[in-house]
Amino acid sequence: MMGMAAAGMQAPLAARVLDVRSEDLTSSSRKWGVVSGLAPSLRRTTTGRLNFASSIAGTPLNLGDRARVSPGCAGIRASSRAPLSLRAAVATDEPVTLSQTYSLEDGSKLEVFAMGSTDQSRAHVVLELHGGPLVNAELIAHWGAIRRGTSGWTLPGLQPDGTRPYKNRALQSPFTKVGDRLKLKIEVVDAEYSAVEFTLKDDATNAWFKCHGTNFHVDIPKSRARVDPATIVIPEELVRVQAFLRWERNGKQHYSQEKEKEEYELARLDLQKEVAGGATMQALEERLLGGGSIFRRSDDRQQQPPPPPPQRQQQQQQQQQQPPVEPIPNDLIAIQAYVRWERAGKPQYDEQKQQEEFVEAKRELEEEVRRGTSVLDIRKRLTGGSEATAPPPPPPRPQPSVWKIERKQWGYDDLISKAGRKGRKGHGDGAAVAEAPAVAAAAPAAADAAAAADSLELAAQIIAGAGLGEVLLKKYYRLNEKKLLVMLMECDGELKLRVASDYPEPLVLHWGLSKGRSRSWQTPPPGIAGSSTRFERACETEFTQGFAGEPSLQSLQLDLAGVEQELPGMPFVVRAGECWFKDYGRDFFLSLNRIDYQQPKDVGDGRGVAKAVLDEIADLESEAEKSLMHRFNLGTQVLDKAKSQGDLGLAAVFVWFRYMASRQLVWNKNYNVKPREISVAQDRFTTVLEEIFRSSPSLRELTRMIMMTVGRGGQGDVGQRIRDEILVIQSKNQCKGGMMEEWHQKLHNNTSPDDVVICQALIDYLNSDFNIDVYWRTLNSNGVTHERLLSYDRPICSEPRFVASQKEGLLRDLGHYMKSLKAVHSGADLESAIATCMGYKQGARADFMKSIEIHPINGLSGNLPNLLQFVLEHVEDRQVVNLVEGLVEARRELRPTLLRHGQERLKDLVFLDLALDSTARTAIERGMGDAKNAGEIMYLVTLLVENLCLSIDDNEELVFCLKEWRHVLDSMNQDNQWALRAKAVLDRTRLILQGKAEQQLALFQPAAVYLGARVGVEQWAVDIFTEEVIRAGSAAALSQLLNRLDPQIRQAADLGSWQVISPADVRGWVEVVDELAEVQERTYERPTVLVARRVKGEEEIPAGVVALLTPDMPDVLSHVSVRARNCKVCFATCFDPQLLDSIRALQGKSTRCAPNTSGSEVVVSEIDPKLMSGGDGAAADLAGPPPGLHIKRKQFAGRYAVTSSEFTPELVGAKSRNIAGLQGKLPSWIHLPTSVALPFGSFETALADPINQSVAAEIKTLSADLEKGDVSMLPNIRRAVLGLKPPPQLVSDLKDAMKKSNMPWPGDEGEGRWEKAWGAITRVWASKWNERAYVSMRKARLDFNSLSMAVLVQEIVRADYAFVVHTENPSTGDKNQIYAEVVKGLGETLVGAFAGRALSFSADKGHTDRPKVLGFPSKRVGLFIRSSIIFRSDSNGEDLEGYAGAGLYDSVPMDEEEERVVDYSSDPLVVDAGFQHSVLSKIASAGEAIEQLLGSAQDIEGVIKDGKLYVVQTRPQM
């Protein structure tokens, strides 16, 4: 059971948990709702709280009243719950009702299970820990119990063996090792306590683990007594509605009187069981009678019905004297009120009149019941009829401005999806997203062709893992409600086919072979057919019972050795008795060509694409041009191969269909096809996409994008109505000639998405009173030009010509027809998508037309219908905030159903989600101009960020931004730093959008170029392909909002348009480039002002550059920033896009760049070229070094390792010596890591050792080529260095030095650990030959061969934060001010090329207790690592006076760092003012102390761990 809960699978008793955290739960969030399992990460930063409750699967869960927890609170209020008592015992496996999983910092997983008492067991809480180093620790739970109504801990009297009291305030119970897990069970034995709180402690290391900085809190679920459903009384009104719903689900059959009574009692039993399972009458009323409306008045006042008018009082008195009647359901009264409103001419009623109409409608229905009509007959009358398309809407509401959505307080964890980060091998994940809410299925799963975790899939896995050969293809097909598995394998160069099924009746495979893809049948050779029964051009092979040891399955095997050369295709069908199974009406087909299953190779023009897929698409295009039916059928054929090649494969399909949708490919070419055939082909194609969406979470975003390019399609009469209904329209409205007849012929020949545009143009033409300009405007604006109309096989040459008498009928009938067109061609059309999911019925409009009835999708949220109705009513509102709220809320309500395993009609839900997403984007674009101030724009940003989170696969970072946006928005009036925080999250959001755009450019554009060239797409369409894709998405609208918000935020934060990193007054010619890295090796012959779009932070500044201007955001203390200041280059970030564009417009012109008087801005102005010679800062000479700059070659001192007490200038560099010189001289609160070093000459001596003779010879040869100027040798030399073997004396010396210094020796830590350490050492040595360092030294004319590399060895402090301090402010030059930057995790994100900015602050010397935050962090990730060793470069060329060599060479940890997305919304350095002040003051004070000790300005690196400060290196500030 616990494994099932973790996997998100359904069980009879589903596990549910709610993470309350610090959000305030409003009244709406206290309503009924199924709550899903969440998995937050553990940090020691903010307070947190969990409440547990349980429910039977599929039954709404009453959350009750919960405590509110705010960051920083010291105590936690307990909720009112049943008092319980507890004792601890060794854990055993028992069923759970609630579960929660936590990720601890060391990688361990903590699972918490809670269960209420039953007749067979006591209530209990089980803690299980697995999957990390803590499993081997001496783990204890430090815990106490909470009495009902109190918040303090008390100690239960019953305690198990091993439990010890702690200062009479807590109990400490040990976990027990069970297999690979640690377990502890806390049992409830009486009614004294209601909850448990605990923390975890490693008893050996005294390490503590908490939940967001506070105790774990577990509310014990209330006991569930067994209830006999038959004893529960259900109001008859609810029973009647439930009976009606059963009747609808059963197809609205005509019941006999006996059957009607039976159904009525079954409906009562349904509700009795639901209440017995935990539901309340209130929940039933809300679900069945529409209570708990999601709408509320904007003034939040309770709306009371108005008093009856005088003329109604007498009628009411008469009614009171009449006998009571059967109650009338509210939904019927609403329909009757609507009918009355229609009869009255649809007037605009005020609210009082609406109430009166509702009362009058109720009276009319009650009178009808008194006359003998049953409520069921009334329901049939009001909801039946052949023309009914959907439940009629209620009477019009008051003006939209007074209504708004009451949004739920949704959690963040159930929004996070990390599927996109999984390996991009393309084989899918085989299950629903692990993060998907585990919502109970409302109905049995539909037949699923995806690989499910059933007996057939398990058997397939056994075969695949049995060493029987390589699996080339594993594919499932439908056999009614069962599945057919096809596995093509290669063993010893020969093909073998295994076919298996879970079909209950005996099966026969009817098969043949074919040449290529012709699907023509030929009889297999006798040696291949074996014992099969041979027919003319086919064979039949019977299935035998059993498959991979599973007797319930049946299977067969065919040996196909050698057939792929002559007959590389295999058509087949399957027979069960006289029942034949085909692939959607066509023969199944299997390619036997091995090339079809090879992974794509990046060769030639196909580099970076799924070339094999694109080549197949290009080869099929001539066939696809025949009709949309052909295109969709071929698309279905290609999808299987595309999926096997992951995101590159699906990107190829997307490019193909995007070209099709944008009319770059031919839709129809000399081929007649029925609309029904197009619809069926479309349905097949989207069904395969549906299965990819279901089974491959990492491909869902791409699948959505493909579905946006096509319509829904459908089986049977959905498509045929397009052909038939146009005849009815022509006949009814007397318009059989001219344009309508030409359109009719086109529709019969080949319908397409253009027909939706033509129909809309006709409607607009009629509504404009026959203005032909309106007709052409609608066509042209949607890409249907006059030339395109003439290009159809059945061209449309005429213009419409109607008369006034035809107008009303045509508007009515074309409106109906539009629904049929959109049902096939416009899957993501909002109205069509809603109707498909909510259900509708179209009656027969002629004798030859059948009616269509689409049933509502089961399992949807009860709130969704009202939300969708709200969206439809407000979709054209000018004030869009309420509309976008409704759209996003509807998507949140839809999300659990979208991700539910086995959900029926999934593609219809995906199309609905796409429609809601698209409508939100267009609404924002339409209404963003109405948001004027920063608060209004930020609120729209939060909505659009949330909307984008619902659309992309890997959204964790964007969810963290959403949290931060909301925190900033809430703190605008309380926090004077809100603007700085807003600027940081704005910058980070931009970086995410930029990264997403670059990802799409890399994924789509190469495929668009390759396929465009193969199929002859016009070059302009190829060039702008990805740009148009990006502009069509929600990210583009979000980017526009951020651009509007940025100036207001900068003004509020007093940031201006620039951040000046290196101030200098210079003159030069403007040169615009894309990335600084692309030109860092260039030498500019004249002074150059470089404007670069991207500056990552680790590049070199090219020779001849006097100014570097960028919109990018490198850290002020990054390598490129230090180099700019050292070389007196003007370096600045420009935040104003318009200002930057004006500078780019100066391309090739002479300019002056100078800081303003305050140094906060850069003034760029065009100057006369004559002024370029002479003057201060006319050009920076980067070609030559300062006078006397040189490197002294170092000699090996005879030992491979020295301790810190032996560090001298002849042995190690300044990095090692500076740290050693601080030992014992700093205040006790400043800590230093233990260090040893491999001294100068160690590399050269190891290289000269006989065991490295071949490596030395290779490096000598490569170095000779390098000295001749061939810089391509650099990576080859680095690879050669990595091949060094450690001389035995080096191993011995290093081991002795490390043990002498009490450092852990890697060789003692287990197999392979010393090898990892040696690999890190060689990587440090190899970094001498990295391109950046080589270019930098060459520019400075330093002797490369004189460079010696010592290696500083230190224990890694597993940092919470890392910092760099410059004790003189580098931006302003203020020697009395300290400047520092801080990042989460290790410092590599600060000094390396990691996007985003660090937290920056300054502090005046002598007042380091008053730090001033200058900017909050926008770094996208943090780096974290296990306990390890780091090997730091320490060359003799890093700290030369006048040469900024720091950061040129690598520091390499023995273990790989883990990259984690950072959540600043819960980071105390950002949100906790007290913690922030403490840490920043400590960093500034350490900088001042070290500067005073060493007597000069310092560049200091250090870390913070558990509040302690460590300095890991210091050097003179350059």
The helix fraction, in percent, is 25-40%
**What's the number of helices?**
44
Radius of gyration: 37 Å
Give the percentage of residues in beta strands.
15-25%
**Which structural class should the secondary elements be placed in?**
alpha+beta
Strand segment tally: 51
Largest sheet: 7 strands, antiparallel
- Overall mean pLDDT score? 78
Which stretches are low in confidence, meaning pLDDT under 50 for 5 or more residues running?
A: 1-96, 291-321, 385-402, 422-453, 600-605, 1174-1187
Shape: globular
Distance between the amino and carboxyl termini: 62 Å
Sum this structure up briefly.
By secondary structure, this protein is of the alpha+beta class. Helix content is 37%, strand content 19%.
Write the layout of secondary structure elements.
Layout: H1 2-6, E1 18-19, E2 50-51, E3 85-89, E4 98-103, E5 109-115, E6 124-130, E7 139-147, E8 153-154, E9 164-166, E10 170-174, E11 176-178, E12 181-190, E13 193-202, E14 207-209, E15 216-219, H2 236-249, H3 257-276, H4 281-289, E16 295-297, H5 310-321, H6 330-343, H7 351-370, H8 375-383, E17 403-405, H9 455-464, E18 470-479, E19 482-491, E20 494-501, E21 508-511, H10 526-529, E22 533-535, E23 538-542, E24 544-547, E25 550-559, H11 563-566, E26 569-576, E27 579-581, E28 588-591, H12 611-624, H13 628-644, H14 646-661, H15 675-695, H16 700-707, H17 717-733, H18 738-750, H19 754-767, H20 772-781, H21 786-791, H22 804-825, H23 830-838, E29 840-842, E30 852-854, H24 864-874, H25 881-898, H26 906-927, H27 934-949, H28 956-970, H29 978-1015, H30 1019-1023, H31 1025-1031, H32 1034-1052, E31 1058-1062, E32 1066-1075, E33 1083-1094, E34 1103-1110, H33 1119-1126, E35 1130-1134, H34 1137-1144, E36 1150-1155, E37 1162-1166, E38 1202-1203, H35 1214-1222, E39 1230-1231, E40 1235-1238, H36 1242-1248, H37 1253-1267, H38 1273-1281, H39 1288-1300, H40 1313-1326, ...
Parallel strand pairs: 32-33, 33-34, 34-35, 39-51
Antiparallel strand pairs: 1-2, 3-12, 4-5, 5-6, 6-12, 7-8, 7-10, 7-13, 9-10, 11-12, 13-14, 13-15, 16-17, 18-19, 19-20, 20-25, 21-23, 21-26, 22-23, 24-25, 26-27, 26-28, 29-30, 31-35, 32-36, 36-37, 38-40, 40-41, 41-47, 42-43, 42-50, 43-44, 44-45, 46-49, 47-48, 50-51
Helix pairs in contact: 2-3, 6-7, 12-13, 12-29, 13-14, 13-15, 14-16, 14-29, 15-16, 15-17, 17-18, 17-22, 19-20, 19-22, 23-26, 24-25, 25-26, 25-27, 26-27, 27-28, 27-32, 28-29, 29-31, 29-32, 37-38, 38-40
